[in-house]
Amino acid sequence: MIGMVLAAAAVAALSGGQGGPQPGPANHCVSCHERLAATTAGGHSFLDWRQSPHGQGGVTCEKCHGGDPAQADQQAAHRGVYSSREARSAVYYTNIPATCGACHTRELGFFKQSRHYAQLETSGRGPNCVTCHGSMATHVLAPNEMEQTCSACHNAQRGPSPTAPIAARYLLELMHQVDFSIAVTRQLADKSGRAARRAAVPYLDRARGSMQLARQSWHSFDLAEVETMLMRTAAASGQADSALGGGKR
Ligand code: HEC
Ligand code: HEC
Ligand code: HEC
Ligand code: HEC
Ligand code: HEC
To answer: How confident is the model at residue 239, as a pLDDT?
Structure first.
């Protein structure tokens, strides 16, 4: 009960006008659900949505659930909205990649190349976007959580690929390290003289582009390929550091 009161207060504070971009005035999904008590049934709460990159980025309910946000009446608004347990729902687990992929086209493109996608299509098994991101993408799994999630299906008792979880954990740690090295090199460049900065910028740009691609191609689950990309990214970041005179520091 206290939790519900606190959640309601937080919603009120967040919708007080200062928070992220406000959804359009006519979105009745948001304005009606905002007033409902927090649901306890699975999925996510209103507050989860509000605080997520989607809530902050103006991705309103109907973008994932369907329905008509221009209707103030519950029944009219809900036309096309179904429980995630129904196969016709846009958020039924086998429909989730297409729903999310309508906006995240690159991630979907890579995911379609994976065995996981094929499994999802044929047997309905295997992870979908929500397995790793949660329905609100409030977070991406941390490396140790990643290992646990993968182990539910990839373990010594049940194949395939019992080593995939530890490999995934290692790759994710590596991804974060390379990300960090790019960020630090960029800060160094900002504080360096003009000539050194100029020499470093092309490598930094290359590193950033390559990092972005590695992050997206991760969704193909071709772990060896992702590792190659990360090594290439790290090399570009190292070249940027050398151009800044890293060796002399
Ligand atoms: C006038 C109020 C109102 C509006 C407008 C409204 N909803 Fe709802 N919605 C509710 C209520 C109340 C429930 C609780 C379940 C019930 O009683 O049907 C609910 C339930 C839901 C559920 C859970 C469905 C289930 O079967 O578990 C989803 C998803 C949902 N709404 C999404 C939306 C979306 C998307 C929109 C806009 C297109 C929207 N709602 C507009 C009041 C509203
Ligand atoms: C980025 C996509 C996305 C957005 C935006 C989104 N949802 Fe959801 N929602 C989902 C997914 C996916 C599920 C299925 C449960 C799960 O896997 O966590 C879900 C589940 C739910 C549920 C539980 C009932 C069920 O069918 O499982 C409700 C209620 C709900 N959402 C309401 C809303 C409301 C209200 C909004 C807007 C304030 C909203 N959602 C915005 C993706 C989204
Ligand atoms: C209508 C378009 C749209 C849909 C549908 C959508 N997203 Fe997003 N997504 C966005 C926007 C906009 C952002 C925030 C801006 C950004 O960081 O790119 C975002 C951000 C993200 C992020 C990055 C979060 C971060 O911290 O950088 C992830 C992960 C994500 N979405 C996953 C999903 C998943 C999973 C689904 C389906 C359940 C989904 N998205 C559905 C538009 C969408
Ligand atoms: C097995 C786990 C897993 C699955 C399944 C998964 N992702 Fe991801 N996703 C990740 C990881 C890990 C990252 C990178 C996180 C980081 O940068 O720290 C990521 C990053 C992202 C990003 C941010 C990319 C960027 O450029 O910053 C988006 C958007 C995204 N995923 C969307 C999706 C969508 C859409 C699906 C379903 C088609 C999906 N993901 C399925 C694990 C997953
Ligand atoms: C819900 C169960 C499930 C989860 C969770 C899961 N996988 Fe899988 N994965 C499968 C299945 C089933 C296959 C087998 C597909 C096949 O044999 O065609 C597979 C195949 C793979 C393959 C390809 C193996 C090969 O022989 O080419 C890799 C790599 C992989 N998974 C990595 C991961 C990683 C990394 C994670 C965690 C982020 C993960 N999986 C989470 C079910 C799962």
So the answer is: 94
Judged by its nearest atom, the ligand closest to the C-alpha of residue 82 is 1
SS3 percent helix, strand, coil of the chain, rounded to 5, is 60, 0, 40
Tell me, in angstroms, the distance from the centre of ligand 4 to residue 56's CA.
18
Structural domain ending residue among the three candidates 61, 80, 99: 80
pTM score above 0.85? yes
**Cα separation of 63 and 137, whole Å?**
14
Nearest to 56 by CA among 22, 32, 15: 22
Tally the domains of the chain.
3
Same domain, 126 and 185: no
Mutate to test the pocket of ligand 4, among 218, 222, 223, 229 (most ligand atoms within 8 A of CB): 218
Instruction: Please indicate, yes or no, whether residues 122 and 193 belong to a single structural domain of this protein.
Output: no
Higher per-residue confidence, 227 vs 158 = 227
Indicate which atom in ligand 3 lies nearest the CA of residue 59: 1
